[in-house]
Structure formats: structure tokens, C-alpha cells
Design goal:
Blueprint (H helix, E strand, L loop, with lengths): L1 H12 L2 E5 L7 H8 L3 E6 L8 H6 L16 E3 L1 H14 L3 H23 L8 E5 L4 H9 L3 E5 L5 H13 L12 H13 L2 E4 L2 H9 L7 E3 L8 H9 L29 H5 L1 H7 L13 H5 L31 H13 L2 H8 L9 H13 L2
Parallel strand pairs: 1-2, 1-4, 2-3, 4-5, 5-6, 6-7
Helix pairs in contact: 2-16, 5-6, 6-8, 12-14
């Protein structure tokens, strides 16, 4: 019992250093740790409070590089250095992969330099958390100091790249000059996961994919993504009447197909835009496009285009409760699902009514899981 109490006291004293390039997941992990008073610092590339001069100058370009939940947190950012890096990268006209790798290396060097210079200010040995592909230099330093390391894997790794490569070969018209990552990208990543004490993924599929790529199963922990809608969204949902799906879909009242995610092959847009989907389902869809490919590229794939937009539709989909999970992401399966919805619009009413963010996908649930993960270290 004494040893267990000592472990609990140590866990409460243990602080996390979060290294995050970009505003991924709206800073969900540092926000979760800050709520439990477990966040020592957030180290990020840019931090731009709305009242800052940089925020007024850059406007929308850096508007997401801040979160009110972390207003009182200790945040280390490299704003000036980031601006200089981006200017030089643009002047050198680096291709996409060279820019990505150079940006990752720039961030790693800045983080490692900060850690070396600020070591004396840390009250306890922290746990260092960093996102994949920009964690190598921080992890090297952390392990030299005997720290524990947590890698947050942002994708399923090499297996996903293989899937995208097959899709690019299948639909070259939509490949948009896609290129696989250079070998050095994966070599650095392999060293990252070797240095990591734990690796966080957000789904079982990602976990299985990483295991196929050689990542040890014992290092992996599945922690779902967290989402909390803004207060104004919750207020609007409380007063907004439920939408009715009872009437049939017509050209005057078309069915809208919502595509979530970036409009590219990696997110599966070719399957959705396959003309077979719309011929088989006889769907009336509005020809609207927000971003992604040129309109001519899409017209080559389908005469009718779906509405492409961005919106959060709830937590993890549970087939039959708040959505439908297809057997496979093929045009035929998508068409069959759409046909079912057209034949029975009340099904949409049922699915929409169940679309809520469950407690296990909140920031508080994420905080608890991170605390439990820290306890295993």
C-alpha cells in the first residue's frame, strides 16, 4: 500500500512537456493535461493570441494558433523563426516533401535547443510528448536525460501510404502529382518509435497498421480523438428544431452528400466521386465545391457533384445508431447506402437524432486516459 501511495504522489507531481507543430486537434492534448494541472509547458511553432500584433497582421493565416483554454498555460513558441523559415522555404521553391521534412527538422532543432537551455527550470523530470515525424531530436535529448517519451502517431504510417499509392495508380487523374514520402522520412520515423516509451494512436485500425510496419504491440495505446463543440454550437442545437427527412428527395429538394476531410485521394474522395455511385443510386445532388481539385477534374469523374464542405458530425460512428459503416469503401457500397437512405428517409432522421458527442470522446475523457497512460510509465 505504501508503494502504491508513493506512486500516486509521484504521478500527481509528474508534469508533461507537449511538443506540437501546428494546431492539430485544436490543441486537445495540452488542453486535457492543463485541466488536470499536469501540463508543464506547451512548446509549439506559433502562438498568436487574438490581441497580439502578429495576430492582427497575419489575420486568418495564424488565427487557429491559439486556444482560450490555454490562455493561462506556459507556452513556448517560435513565431519570428517560423515566419523566417516559411519565407526562405518559399524563396527556395522547395517541393512539398522537401518543405515538410525541412519544417519538421526546423521545429525539432528549436525544441531541442529550448530543452537544453531550460533544463534547470524544470522542477521534476517531465514526460515528453511529441507528435510523429517531428519528434526525433526532442526524443534523443529526452532519452539522454532519462525522461519518458510519448509519441502521438498522426496517421497509420507506411501501410496507409501503400493504400494511397494503390489509389493513385487506380485513379491517376485525381492523383494531383501525389508522391510517396522519401526513404529518409520513414527512417527518421522508425527511430522515433524506437525511442518512444508509448505510442498513442486514435483507432484500432491505426494500431493494426503500425504493427504491420514493425511497431511493437506493447508500446501502442489506443486513445480516441476528443472533441467538444463550442458553447454557441451547443446552445443552437438546444433550441434548433429537429430537421425533417420524411419527404422524398427531388431535384428541387436534392439530397446532399457531405464529404468530411481534405478533398484528396488520401481521404477517399475518388470512391465518393465515382460516376457509378450516382448512376446506380439515381441521386439528386447539388454541384457545389469548396476546395481541393479543379472543377474540371471532378467533372471527369462524375456528372453530378456532391456538396463538399466541412462539419463535425459527432464522435465515433456506430453502425445503425448514428451512421452507417460500409463493408468496404467502394463506389458500389456507397451507392447502396445512398439508395437505402433515399428509399427510407426516416432512417436519416433516426441517425441524426443519435448524433451526439459521447462522454468518452470529450476532453475530460482524454485527460483521464493520458493520466492513466502516464501511470503505466
Amino acid at each position: 500500500m505504501l508503494a502504491q501511495n508513493d506512486s500516486l504522489r509521484l504521478l500527481k507531481k509528474m508534469k508533461w512537456l507537449c511538443c506540437q507543430l501546428g494546431a492539430r486537434e485544436h490543441y486537445a492534448i495540452p488542453r486535457a493535461l492543463f485541466r488536470l494541472n499536469l501540463l508543464d509547458r506547451l512548446v509549439t511553432d506559433a502562438w498568436v493570441p487574438p490581441s497580439s500584433f502578429l495576430g492582427k497582421v497575419c489575420g486568418r493565416r495564424l488565427a487557429d494558433r491559439f486556444h482560450g483554454d490555454l490562455r493561462e498555460a506556459r507556452v513556448i513558441a517560435f513565431n519570428s523563426s517560423l515566419i523566417l523559415f516559411e519565407m526562405l522555404a518559399r524563396a527556395r521553391a522547395l517541393n512539398e516533401w522537401k518543405t515538410i521534412i525541412a519544417r519538421n527538422r526546423w521545429f525539432q532543432r528549436k525544441v531541442a535547443s529550448f530543452l537544453r537551455s531550460q533544463l534547470s527550470t524544470l522542477n521534476v523530470q517531465p514526460m515528453l510528448l511529441s507528435y510523429s515525424y517531428s519528434a526525433l531530436e526532442p526524443f534523443r535529448y529526452a532519452k539522454s536525460q532519462g525522461w519518458k517519451t510519448v509519441l502521438v502517431q498522426i496517421d497509420p504510417g507506411p501501410k496507409e501510404e501503400k493504400i494511397v499509392a494503390e489509389e493513385a495508380a487506380r485513379v491517376p487523374a485525381l492523383a494531383n502529382e501525389w508522391q510517396p514520402a522519401p526513404a529518409q522520412y520513414w527512417a527518421s520515423w522508425q527511430e522515433e518509435y524506437e525511442l518512444a516509451d508509448r505510442i498513442v494512436v486514435n483507432s484500432q485500425w491505426s494500431r493494426d497498421s503500425l504493427i504491420c510496419s514493425g511497431v511493437p504491440n506493447g508500446k501502442l495505446a489506443v486513445i480516441p480523438l476528443a472533441y467538444e463543440p463550442p458553447d454557441i454550437t451547443r446552445q443552437q442545437s438546444a433550441v434548433r428544431p429537429a430537421q425533417s427527412y420524411g419527404a422524398p428527395f427531388t431535384r428541387e429538394r436534392p439530397m446532399r452528400v457531405l464529404f468530411l476531410g481534405q478533398v484528396n485521394l488520401r481521404k477517399g474522395v475518388a470512391r465518393l466521386l465515382d460516376a457509378e455511385t450516382y448512376r446506380a443510386a439515381d441521386v439528386f445532388i447539388l454541384p457545389t465545391l469548396s476546395d481541393g481539385f479543379a472543377i474540371t477534374q471532378l467533372e471527369a469523374q462524375a456528372h453530378s457533384l456532391p456538396v463538399i464542405t466541412s462539419r463535425f458530425c459527432g464522435g465515433v460512428i456506430e453502425s445503425g445508431r448514428n451512421g452507417m459503416i460500409l463493408d468496404e469503401p467502394s463506389a458500389a457500397c456507397i451507392a447502396a447506402a445512398i439508395r437505402d437512405c433515399i428509399a427510407d428517409p426516416s432512417r436519416l432522421q433516426h441517425l441524426a437524432a443519435a448524433s451526439r458527442v459521447a462522454k468518452e470522446f470529450t476532453i475530460d475523457a482524454l485527460a483521464q486516459r493520458l493520466q492513466e497512460l502516464g501511470g503505466t510509465l
